Amino acid sequence: MSVVDPGFSPASPPPPPARVHLDAGGNARLHPLARQGLEQALTEGWAEPHRLHSESRRAAALLWGAREAVAGAVGAKTEEVHFAPSHVAALHAAVRAVTLGRRRAGTTIVSSAVERAAVLDAARFVTARAGSDARHDVVGVDGTGMVDADAFAAALTAPGVAVAALQHSNGEVGTIQPVGAMHAAARAAGVPLVVDAGAALGHAVVPEDWDVLTGDSADWGGPSGVGVLVVRRGVRFTADWPEDADSWFPGGVSVPSAFAAAVALQACADDLAAQDSRRRALVDLVRTRVPQLVPDVEMVGDPTNRLPHVVTFSCLFVDGEALVSELDRAGIAVGSGSACTSSALEPSHVLAAMGVLTHGNVRIGIDRATTREDVERFLAVLPTAVATVRGMLGVGSL
Amino acid sequence: MTGEPVVVDARGLRCPIPVIRLARRAQDLDPGDLVTVWSTDPAAVHDVPAWARMRGHAIEGSVNVDAADGAFTAITVRVGG
């Protein structure tokens, strides 16, 4: 006998469809093994690692193990690896300390125009403080975002260069830079090369062509609040901040977070090839289908020489931030390099340097949890979202 | 082909409105005509050339103007055929 409560009504609404997260750049979801590692380290390595008792020594051992694991993943010695409180902090420290350490050689900083804002900001900061002789030599890129290699190599041989910075690959548009050739040119010129691998570690094989390397835990599925700085022995540096037991990053970092970051990086290395082909196929799907589905779209970045998990495009006559909000309402999270309505006054310096449309920009980062269904749902929603935003601006048949 | 360029005053407007106003005006012009857009939006100096490239127009020049009522950029486009 079935009992039906007369007051019952099947009013509980259907659950909203799951969110689709396609904004993994520096913002990936936590790797399942990182979560496990974090719990383990919170249990065993919660203590402050500089004291003499057993609890502290256990935390110190976990931290050393984490440095060892990162060293193994990037091709460095354990003592060359340092954990930073963020990737931005790692880049700031690298540019500041290496420039000051090389002050006898000069004060010029060479970088590409498409380095992360943290590199460009640190270069501006350092040269402004160093006096009127100090220069930041910014080398341009082509339409795909690839640095002008001849100009970069020539800039390295100018007198008075303290340090050079070139990203392994661009996190906004995916294009891979010629770090091997530029590291050879830097070595020939006697200039240390800082390579920002913040968009690449955990996703691509990063060659050992660097003197200083940086990485971002939150980009490869480790916890946020952990950056990595690797400084090869022999690179001269001088801290321009107060002394501390943790000389690179005063006060140190959270041991459990650093440990989980290292676990995640190791785990990414274990299935790098499988994740590469899986995500490259999803990126290719976006690159092929979006121009078919949406009129007046420009795909951005090198079509082949690229990261496996980043894809970017710009839509003509579209307010990029309005498009992000429209997609968000449809349950989909994407990034954008546009600055049309936000408090950001300047559009992405990367898109600007490439000479491509800065408005109507959509940036997608695919993490290991992103499925083909997620991407298909994005592709199903995108044409209407673009048409809606264009409609709001009265863009008819322009 | 005309002499004086047509002016589109898009000062104070944020992207992508300056490019939209420019595109709307350029639609009524003949190949070879000149049209100048005045803009204070930092994106316009990147997006007007990108739009011109996508639509087959040519950039004739770009100047920063220091007017009494505020600085702006004037970008002149030659309408393509």
Description of the structure:
The complex is a heterodimer of chains A (398) and B (81). Chain A has 398 residues and is an alpha/beta fold. Chain A is built from twelve helices and twelve strands. In chain A, the strands form three sheets. Chain A has a seven-stranded mixed β-sheet with strand order 2-8-7-6-5-3-4, sandwiched between helices. In chain A, strands 9-10-12 form a three-stranded antiparallel β-sheet. In chain A, α2 (54-74) runs parallel beside α8 and α3 runs parallel beside α4 (117-130). The model of chain A has no long low-confidence stretch (mean pLDDT 95). Chain B is of the alpha+beta class and 81 residues long. Chain B has helices at residues 17-27, 44-55, and strands spanning 6-10, 34-39, 58-67, 70-78. A four-stranded mixed β-sheet of chain B has the order 1-2-4-3, with helices on one face. In chain B, α1 (17-27) runs parallel beside α2 (44-55). The mean pLDDT of chain B is 94.
